[in-house]
Amino acid sequence: MTSLAALKVSVADKLPLLRRLDQFRTWDSLDDERQCIQCGQIITGRKIEVVGGTRELGPLRLQCPTKDCPALPIDWIRPARSAQSLFTAGVMPALDDAISAAPVPDRGPVQKCSEHFSPT
Prior knowledge:
The chain is an alpha+beta fold. The chain is built from three helices and five strands; from the N terminus they run αβββββαα. A hairpin with a 5-residue loop joins strand 1 and strand 2. It starts with 10 loop residues before the first helix and ends in a 19-residue tail after the last helix.
């Protein structure tokens, strides 16, 4: 995907545009951070580019500000929720321990699927 030239958007208009055009996550401020899963960069609402619009190849949309990165809002996650951040914070090992310690229900002896049905 070719990156389009970013539109010049005022600071006052940027937050409402982020809120309207990013249907996957909420934006509380222009300083909210997202991590792009395409390029790995941490980006803020201030850096995100608004492209498109009248006669500019389609409707207004958001794109990652990293050069040659094709990412769109669906490709951005909150940094604290990324797997690396969770692992670093000790959440993932704790989840692994909890899953390992969880009791496995006894479902009785395993039977072949054919034993449950009689031929007609």
